[in-house]
């Protein structure tokens, strides 16, 4: 893809990218990743990348540049998340703002509001479904009217899942297979140093478990507002709501409690009827674990969160003693460098669908257009699917380094770079859509997956087999 010349619009904003919350535990790694990739992106822009970091403390931000960014000489902008005037000024100065300040249910809305009013595109690292849904309800219409791209969940939650489903469907369609369902299985791979995560992630999870009732009410509003994308068949794999043994993977599985399922389904809905949209599928998200012990520990943790988080005193206990309640995984210290270096992730996408008959080019034409209209899916359903079960299994996989603090900066920064390089200013959106979107619905017409492959995130087809 030819890189456009962006010099025409350079005078409009002081910065291309600002990292807000750069002195936080994840934010410092996001800033560090920009420092290491700025030269390459500058070549694509055909001019130096103009970036800055922002947050509450000038001194802490300067320390991030000195300790994590190789002493990069970039502007430092002190601004507090509750300073609405300062946030508006910050958003008005940049083309894209990367938000790393969580929990987003407490601190995110002010930042999105500033971006919408200040004319900045926005990406973040949230994994909080309630915040994502609230953002859609509150800001989608304004973002569209102002040609702004607002994309929550651009970190490990939930970009690998969302783009992985996009990638799997695209590869199936290219192989003349009608996608019907995809189940994702997330596995974490650790080394001798073990695994840990930072307190901020645990705090977001606690608050999420505390507000499940509010999420259900908001989700109902979201579902009522946006179009629904119906798969080509009502047949889908049964949801496994308990710990189970998966013979194909050779692992224990249990439902994944994060935002991946809601983000993937929302993304398919948001491109319903849009040009080049892919056929929607049924989707399920699971964890896949090798040992009974790890599976049992995660099950216990979920039960403890469900029991204690709804109560104020329970939340106090959980947040006061995170290590005690999480088997030592979550703490204010976070993972050590050795832990991060030895940790990686894989997400396996097991899809089922219908192979097109050889030479049936008319059905293939319907398949290519099946995401663009229900009428195309009706035609495909009548010609190929009928009422029968899928006849083909197709497996793809997304892989990457430690998810929270190595992969997340790669994911969110490359999302920001894609906005810079592939979103057209003025009239029209270029390859990047406008509105409040998920990663797949924002970037499905862009080179983001190709960019991520070059940055160490793997996307690959694993296998295909007949089920009949």
Structural write-up:
By secondary structure, this protein is α/β, with parallel strands linked by helices. It has 18 helices and 16 strands. The protein has a 7-stranded parallel beta sheet with strand order 3-2-1-4-5-6-15, with helices on both faces. Strands 9-10-11-7-13-14-16 form a 7-stranded mixed beta sheet. Strands 8-12 form a two-stranded parallel sheet. Strand 9 and strand 10 (251-255) form a beta hairpin. The longest helix has 21 residues, at 25-45. The radius of gyration is 22 Å and the shape is globular. The protein starts with 14 loop residues before the first strand and ends with a strand. Mean pLDDT is 93; it is low at 1-10 and 425-429.
Q: Quick one: overall form?
A: globular
Q: Structural class of the helices, strands and pairings?
A: alpha/beta
Which percent band covers the strand fraction?
15-25%
Percent range for helical residues?
40-55%
Neighbour order of strands in the largest sheet: 3-2-1-4-5-6-15
Largest sheet: 7 strands, parallel
What integer value in Å does the Rg equal? 22 Å
Oligomer: single chain
In DSSP terms, counting alpha (H) and pi (I) runs of 4 or more, how many helices?
A: 18
* Amino-to-carboxy terminus distance: 40 Å
Total strands: the figure is 16
Identify low-pLDDT runs. Answer: 1-10, 425-429
Average of per-residue pLDDT values: 93
């Amino acid at each position: 893809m030819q890189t456009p010349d962006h010099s025409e619009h350079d005078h409009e904003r002081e910065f291309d990218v600002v990292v807000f919350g750069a002195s936080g535990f994840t934010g410092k790694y996001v800033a560090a990743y920009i420092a290491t990739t700025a030269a390459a992106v500058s070549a694509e822009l055909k001019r130096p990348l103009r970036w800055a970091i922002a947050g509450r403390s000038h001194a802490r931000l300067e320390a991030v540049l000195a300790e994590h960014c190789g002493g990069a000489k970039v502007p430092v902008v002190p601004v507090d998340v509750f300073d609405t005037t300062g946030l508006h000024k910050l958003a008005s100065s940049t083309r894209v703002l990367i938000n790393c300040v969580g929990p987003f249910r407490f601190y995110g809305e002010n930042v999105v509001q500033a971006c919408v009013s200040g004319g900045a595109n926005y990406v973040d690292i949230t994994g909080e479904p309630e915040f994502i849904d609230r953002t859609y309800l509150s800001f989608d219409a304004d973002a569209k009217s102002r040609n702004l791209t607002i994309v929550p969940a651009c970190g490990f939650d939930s970009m690998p899942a969302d783009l992985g489903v996009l990638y799997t469907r695209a590869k199936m369609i290219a192989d003349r297979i009608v996608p019907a369902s995809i189940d994702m299985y997330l596995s974490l791979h650790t080394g001798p140093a073990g695994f840990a995560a930072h307190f901020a992630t645990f705090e977001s999870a606690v608050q999420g478990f505390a507000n499940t009732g509010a999420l259900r009410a908001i989700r109902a509003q979201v579902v009522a507002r946006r179009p629904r994308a119906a798969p080509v068949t009502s047949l889908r794999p049964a949801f496994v709501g308990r710990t189970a043994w998966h013979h194909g993977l050779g692992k224990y599985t249990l439902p994944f409690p994060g935002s991946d399922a809601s983000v993937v389904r929302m993304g398919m809905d948001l491109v319903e009827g849009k040009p080049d949209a892919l056929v929607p599928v049924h989707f399920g998200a699971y964890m896949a674990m090798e040992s009974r012990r790890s599976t049992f520990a995660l099950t216990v943790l979920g039960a403890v969160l469900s029991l204690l988080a709804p109560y104020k005193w329970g939340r106090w206990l959980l947040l006061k003693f995170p290590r005690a309640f999480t088997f030592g995984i979550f703490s204010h210290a976070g993972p050590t460098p050795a832990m991060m270096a030895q940790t990686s992730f894989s997400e396996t996408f097991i899809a089922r669908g219908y192979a097109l008959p050889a030479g049936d080019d008319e059905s293939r034409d319907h398949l290519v257009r099946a995401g663009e209209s229900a009428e195309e899916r009706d035609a495909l359903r009548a010609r190929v699917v009928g009422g029968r079960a899928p006849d083909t299994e197709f497996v793809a996989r997304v892989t990457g380094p430690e998810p929270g603090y190595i992969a997340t900066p790669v994911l969110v920064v490359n999302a920001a770079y894609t906005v810079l390089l592939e979103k057209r200013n003025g009239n029209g959106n270029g390859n990047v859509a406008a509105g409040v979107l998920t990663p797949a619905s924002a970037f499905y017409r862009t080179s983001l997956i190709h960019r991520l492959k070059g940055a160490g995130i793997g996307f690959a087809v694993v296998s295909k087999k007949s089920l009949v």
